[in-house]
Amino acid sequence: MSLTAYFFSVAAALVTLVVVVDLLRRRRLRERHAIWWLVAGIMALVVSLVPTVLTWAAVLVGVEVPINLVFFVSLAVLFLVCIQHSVELTALESKTRALAERVALLELEVRDDAPPADAADSPRTPE
To answer: By its UniProt entry, which InterPro entries does this protein fall under (predicted)?
Structure first.
């Protein structure tokens, strides 16, 4: 690995970690969403600082070309993020449906308890 590529990979990993931590600090990203990004950033930083770790891990799992392991792990992390978001989206859809049904029932209850519109608008005439 050239010196330029080495510094670029370390800088990219550090920027990723700093951005994720900053988003967490400013409460723009929740902890449960940040976990996979922090894992990916830490793994990228370790591989950037010690490139032989990637070669060792590739040999360990039986991958011939170490960069293929990087692509596989990246794809796996993105897949896990997608699954996590799908689960949360499903839960939010269920909550939204329940809230919409509750609001509809409350509106119906208010409408049934209110006096009729024509009786409330017209002045009463003594008989």
So the answer is: DUF2304 (IPR019277)
